[in-house]
Amino acid sequence: MNDRLSALRLFVRAARVGNFSRAGRELGLSQPSASRLIAALEEEVGTTLFSRTTRAVMLTDAGAMYLTRVEAILAALDEADHEARGTGELRGSLRVGTPISLGLREIIPRLPAFMKQHPALKIELRVTDRYPDLVTEGIDVSFQFGALPDSSATARKLIHQPRILTASPDYLRERGTPTMPSDLAHHSVIISPAHPSPTFSFRKDGRVTSVRVDNQLSITINEGATASAVAGLGIATSSESSALAELEAGQLVRVLPDWDFGSMELNALFVSGKTIKPSARAFTDFLLRELRAA
Q1: Higher confidence at residue 48 or residue 74?
Q2: What would the DSSP string read from start to end of 97-138?
Q3: Domain count, the chain
Q4: Which CATH number covers residue 36?
Q5: Which carries the bigger pLDDT value, residue 89 or residue 236?
Q6: CA 136, CA 22: separation in Å to the nearest integer?
Q7: Where are the beta strands (DSSP E) in the chain?
Q8: Nearest-angstrom CA–CA distance, 273 and 135
Q9: Is 135 buried (19+), middle (13-18) or exposed (0-12) by CB count in 10 A?
């Protein structure tokens, strides 16, 4: 990669993360090399693109305008390279965001097939149950369940999965099996990101029933809620796929299976107004086919 193209890619990442060192590390450059490339770019462009402080770097007005043009150019270049090869082969890097359960249970088991098809593509998975900042973290596509808090993202709806309640056989033997939503008020319900509100609503025969549950345990990751349910700590909420292995193994059983507890919509999120990378689009299409075929 020539210095000008390297400098443009570095400029985009530095603009997004506000730090030359961090942007350089992401692109395999030392801090002195990153600073030197940016300085050379500014000299070539003929204006100051960043205002620098001891804590961060920020775009100047000229830099902000330049960023808009450069991002579009780099995206178009990636697309042109992809089309010119004419083989469907993907190259470069792809940064993917995913919740922990989806990453461990659905994405990682399917990665070998996709990576075998595209051996020149480098993939970085950002696995976390918090919503990522697509722009500052440089994420090309993020797969997320539920409501979308990031208004700067463009969403592509993929699938719906039923939201379910599960508990261990031992817990139900000790505490009894709920037969009505109102019974949940007398149980220990594990609160997790799959349903962070303590008010649960169910639908059956056209009737909506709501109940406020008691939680002795709340947990910040959905995988932790499933593990806690297996350990007998209470009744957990999850998507159907997030507890499928435990249900099939008999470690968990469905609670109130005849009641509709709603669904969880899976979306692919892209930075709004930015051309989608060919690799991000291809991986999203691949994952959608795989999930629909499951």
Answers
A1: 48
A2: EE-HHHIIIIIGGGHHHHHHH-TTEEEEEEE-SSPP-TTTTT
A3: 2
A4: 1.10.10.10
A5: 236
A6: 11
A7: 50-52, 57-59, 92-98, 121-127, 141-145, 153-167, 189-190, 199-204, 207-212, 235-239, 253-255, 263-271
A8: 11
A9: middle
What single-letter amino acid sits at 45?
V
14-45 CB burial, b ≥16 within 10 A, e <16: bbbbbbbbebbebbebeeeebbebbeebbeee
Length, in residues, of the chain: 294
Domain boundary among 59, 85, 111: 85
Q: Give the model's pLDDT for residue 2.
A: 67
Which residues make beta-bridge pairs with 68?
none
Of 59-68, 86-95, 211-220, give the lowest mean pLDDT range. 86-95
In which band, very low, low, confident or very high, does the pLDDT at 17 lie, cut at 50, 70 and 90? confident
Which residues make Cβ contacts (< 8 Å) with residue 196, sequence separation at least 6? none
pTM, to two decimals = 0.75
Give the separation between CA 232 and CA 174, rounded to whole angstroms.
10
**pLDDT of 1 higher than 80:** no
Assess whether 195 and 124 both reside in one domain: yes
Count of other CB atoms within 10 angstroms of residue 274:
17
Contact 99, 71 (CB under 8 A): no
The residue range of the domain holding 55 is: 3-85
